[in-house]
Design brief:
A: mainly alpha, 14 helices, about 80% helix, B: about 300 residues, mainly alpha, two-stranded antiparallel ribbon, 13 helices
Chain lengths: ~290, ~300
């Protein structure tokens, strides 16, 4: 023990510096190897999607499997029709879910912060609950609830928005919560109130503009989740984009692969936009 | 509606009397009613339904858990979740460490992190199709191997347990990176320097300093990954349409009328079992998370 200590105090600074340099070099090599291997694992399945949507059995390429997608608006091809239905339903669902989610969360969250902070813990608990309850479990219990919904509103796919608003709750809540943490809700609202603003003005003209980027990121993540949702739609026998892709895949694998690629690219773009927006907000919050 | 409730409550000065108390709570009512109908009620239906037979309370439904098909599905689901959580956690931790040693503002870290945050949400039909396109019977990788070596590799394993492990790794690894990286970022370089000043080697540093500090964070991430794989349905459902080897797929079978035991409550009992297991894992996760945050903030 004393020997090592004595040895260490005598280590010349140059030797220590070269030790550090060696470590940094080996860390860099390790970093590139790990990143390259994992990225390859991520890339291969996606590239395969592109490859197998066009590859012919004997070799060579042919892109006709993309036709039902490229002419999705007009073609009478059965695959086209499925995708068109699914896409329209999913877009309607996105809109309905976003409206519902924002209407449910934003006023309640602001109100609880301002006037009823003792409800904050329970709201947080409720909002994070869907992370613990698997969607498949919810579906089992939703049977009777959705029979009621069908009696009242019909069986349209768009009414899935009720359950989708629940599924996006944890993610949307976290995004909005972080946004509200970043501003002084109470101070802002007291300032506005003392200048004679009503609660409506506080809500829509003071707080909302200040958490715009949080609203955007909550919307993006909800959008991505709704576009990718399969479990609930397939088990409640409603058609959305994902169940449509699945059905197309039953008899036209190439077109389904192509469509999966399009949907994937769409999701990628949306979520990259999201990570841009959220990294901008977090930087603003820390500075 | 918000405005009227407030004007009624405000003059009395915030939350003394019962009336004003109700006035303060009123605007939050729509949210809680909605959540009750679409989240609490379905969960309640599952839990109550698992213990109900012809309107009366019973525990006889739970006999279903002894059914061989259900038992094997439970073991397979737990096994799959455990193995995919461990592979995801180990590979993800390596990747996270590689990112933690990189320049925090650098391009590499930011782009890999962005990719991970996309892929962690990725799953379901598209993911299943990705892997069928890669290593299915006519998959690209299968084809390349055939072209190079002249042998057609057996691809039936993709639709079985090993295939699920591989496919689940695709969203488990990115999830691990996202949840574990903050813990690695919390490690201070000074700790390593202190270890070295006192004569410790790299091994000492990892086994006596960094390892014990990171362990709770690693275990809690592992538990999160387990719960994530356990509740996953869409990917497995899109990949395996013939058999029902997992609990979630057993529920699909029960809902679509393939009855395992002739009871109506099958789906509810299976769903209840899933809730119980996920709830246990998530509770452990929350406890671990609290421990993990002791050193790393």
């Amino acid at each position: 023990m004393t020997a090592t200590l004595a040895g260490l105090t005598e280590t010349p600074p140059e030797k220590r510096r070269s030790q550090l340099a060696t470590r940094r070099r080996s860390q860099r090599a390790f970093r590139w190897v790990v990143v390259a291997v994992v990225l390859l694992f991520f890339a291969i399945p996606i590239l395969s999607l592109l490859d197998s949507s066009s590859r012919l059995r004997g070799g060579g390429r042919e892109w006709s499997a993309w036709d039902p997608i490229l002419q999705v608006a007009t073609s009478s091809d059965p695959s086209s029709r499925l995708i068109r239905d699914g896409l329209v339903n999913s877009l309607l669902l996105v809109a309905a879910t976003l409206v519902l989610m924002l209407l449910l969360l934003i006023p309640t969250m602001i109100w609880i912060r301002l006037r009823a902070p003792y409800l904050r813990r329970i709201m947080e608990f409720v909002c994070l609950l869907p992370l613990t309850i698997p969607a498949i479990v919810l579906v089992v219990g939703l049977g009777p609830v959705y029979r009621r919904v069908a009696d009242l509103l019909g069986t349209g796919a768009v009414w899935l928005c009720f359950i989708y608003a629940i599924l996006v709750l944890p993610f949307a809540y976290r995004a909005l919560d972080a946004g509200l943490d970043g501003i002084e809700v109470r101070t802002l609202s007291e300032a506005a109130r003392s200048l004679g603003a009503g609660w409506g003005t506080v809500m829509f003209r003071i707080v909302l503009p200040n958490i715009r980027s949080a609203v955007i990121s909550a919307s993006f993540i909800s959008l991505a989740l709704v576009l990718g949702e399969y479990t609930v739609a397939s088990l409640l026998a409603r058609r959305n984009l994902q169940t449509a892709i699945f059905l197309v895949g039953q008899n036209n694998v190439k077109t389904a692969s192509a469509m999966a690629l399009v949907a994937l690219a769409l999701g990628f773009v949306l979520l990259l936009l999201l990570s841009l927006v959220s990294s901008r907000t977090s930087r603003k919050a820390t500075s | 509606m918000v405005t009227t409730a407030v004007t009624a409550a405000a003059p009395r000065g915030g939350g003394r009397g019962l009336g004003s108390r109700l006035g303060v709570i009123a605007p939050t009512v729509p949210f809680f009613v909605y959540v009750t109908i679409f989240l609490v009620l379905p969960t309640g239906i599952v839990v109550v339904g698992a213990f109900q037979n012809d309107g009366g309370f019973t525990t006889s439904n739970l006999a279903l858990l002894n059914n061989p098909a259900v038992r094997s599905a439970t073991f397979t689901t737990v096994g799959l979740s455990a193995i995919s959580a461990i592979t995801g956690a180990v590979v993800g931790a390596l990747l996270a460490y590689a990112l933690a040693t990189a320049d925090p503002e650098g391009k590499l870290r930011r782009s890999v992190l962005a990719i991970c945050s996309v892929l962690a949400q990725f799953g379901g039909v598209m993911l299943a199709f990705c892997f069928i396109a890669a290593i299915g019977r006519n998959g690209s990788v299968t084809q390349i191997v055939l072209d190079i070596t002249g042998t057609r590799i057996d691809t039936t394993w993709l639709y079985e347990f090993p295939g699920l492990v591989l496919v689940y790794a695709y969203f488990q690894i990115p999830l691990m990176v996202i949840v574990f990286l903050p813990a690695l970022d919390g490690i201070r370089p000074q700790w390593r320097e202190a270890t070295e000043t006192m004569g410790g080697s790299t091994w000492t540093y990892w086994s006596r300093v960094a390892g014990p500090i990171l362990l709770p964070a690693f275990v809690s991430s592992l538990l999160l990954l387990f719960a994530n794989a356990f509740s996953a349905y869409a990917t497995a459902a899109a990949l395996i349409s013939q058999a029902n080897p997992l609990l979630a797929l057993q529920i699909r079978g029960a809902l679509s009328g393939e009855v395992v035991s002739g009871q109506q409550s099958t789906a509810k009992v299976l769903a209840f079992l899933m809730v119980v297991i996920v709830a246990i894992v998530m509770t452990l996760y929350a406890l671990m998370q609290r421990r993990a945050s002791r050193w790393l903030r």
